[in-house]
Amino acid sequence: MTETTAAGAHPAEGAAAAEDTSIRPFRVSIPEVDLVDLRRRNTAARWPTKELVPDQSQVENVYPNLIYFNKVDKGGHFAAWEEPELFSSELRAAFRSLR
Question: Where do the H-state alpha helices sit in 1-99?
Answer without folding.
Answer: 14-19, 32-44, 56-62, 79-82, 84-96
